[in-house]
Write a structure and sequence with these properties.
36% of the residues lie in helices and 38% in strands. By secondary structure, it is an alpha+beta fold. The protein has a single domain, classed as Ribosomal protein L22/L17 (Ribosomal Protein L22, Chain A, Alpha-Beta Complex), CATH 3.90.470. A hairpin with a 5-residue loop joins strand 2 and strand 3. The longest helix has 22 residues. GO terms for molecular function: rRNA binding; structural constituent of ribosome.
């Protein structure tokens, strides 16, 4: 069984979010939650929310299929960060000039799966 969660338009640069995603890739779900809760980076919060959403999606999927759900059997099968839309902002400067400011966003995807032999 496999469940997926996607967070779109997250106001974190993709480079910073990838640092967090690389920390948890391939780990057990419970261990990944602990890592993200104690990580000092601000990008860990949206990654943690996406991971918790994927775990909840797995719980709902198991209930619908009538299968037993054990959170300890879940591991992070796949996780990645894509670049989202870039918000363009302008700041006024002297003599009619304008400074262009680009605010980057991310799309965070987390896929959790149960171990093959776990039943």
């Amino acid at each position: 069984m496999e469940a997926k969660a996607i967070a779109r338009h997250v106001r974190v640069t993709p480079r910073k979010a990838r640092r967090m995603v690389d920390l948890i890739r391939g780990k057990k779900a419970a261990e990944a939650i602990t890592i993200l809760k104690f990580a000092p980076q601000d990008a860990s919060v949206p990654v943690l929310k996406t991971l918790e959403s994927a775990i909840s999606n797995a719980r709902v999927k198991a209930d619908r299929a009538g299968e037993p759900f054990r959170e300890n059997d879940l591991f992070i099968k796949e996780t990645f960060v894509d670049e989202g839309v870039t918000l363009k902002r302008f700041r006024a400067r002297a003599q009619g000039r304008a400074a262009r400011i680009n605010k980057r966003t991310s799309h965070i995807t987390v896929v959790v799966a149960a171990k093959e032999g776990a039943r």
